[in-house]
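Regression report. Comparing outputs from two consecutive submissions.

Submission 1:
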Amino acid sequence: QVQLVESGGGLVQAGGSLRLSCAASGRTSGRALGWFRQAPGKERVLVASVSWSGFSTYYADSVKGRFTISRDNAKNTVLLQMNSLEPEDTAVYYCRVQYDTNWNLGSWGQGTQVTVSS
């Protein structure tokens, strides 16, 4: 099973930027990759995804125009560039491999904490 390790989180002021990275050990070829986040007391939600080719992306409305997802298939990594961060972006961020339509299958990494202060 693919192991996922997220990094790059931290504490940043509103308006600042962070870049998250996720390293996958195992086969992800042909699979979309995504970034989810879970804020305290809320469900884990998909914020961005990228197809295997990198040409097709999805963004949740709340992050459109501020976040950019990309992947490097040679390095088996997926990145999330987060700009113009808002306190509402505070959450634990997780990456995931898409094995089914609803992203239900597969394991989770430990996540990386992003905290945005106002």
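Submission 2:
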Amino acid sequence: QVQFVESGGGLVKPGGSLGLSCVVSGITFRLYTTAWYRQAPGKQRELVAVITGSGSTTYADSVKGRFTISRDNAENTVSLQMNSLKPEDTAVYYCHVRWATLQYWGQGTQVTVSS
């Protein structure tokens, strides 16, 4: 079965940085488009960043220039480097993989930006 190991969340002060990592097993990882989503309390889940198997990236306007998504197909890993964090970045961050009609979600990791 598909398994996710997400790590890297935590508490950081405004202006700080955090890195998230997601290791996925049980799929042919290189075929899948991978992404990070987030969901803040009382809000809908939203797309943060996407990276395809070939490395093309897309970012939400709210994180452009601050966040960087990357992947390592050899290690079945997708990462999200988050810089210049703001309180409004506080949310549960979810790893997501998709290929054709198949999609799977990680369990989520909490990121809290607060002084």
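Expected: both submissions complete independently.
Actual: both completed, but the second showed a warning that disappeared on reload.
Relevant detail on submission 2: The chain has a mean pLDDT of 97.
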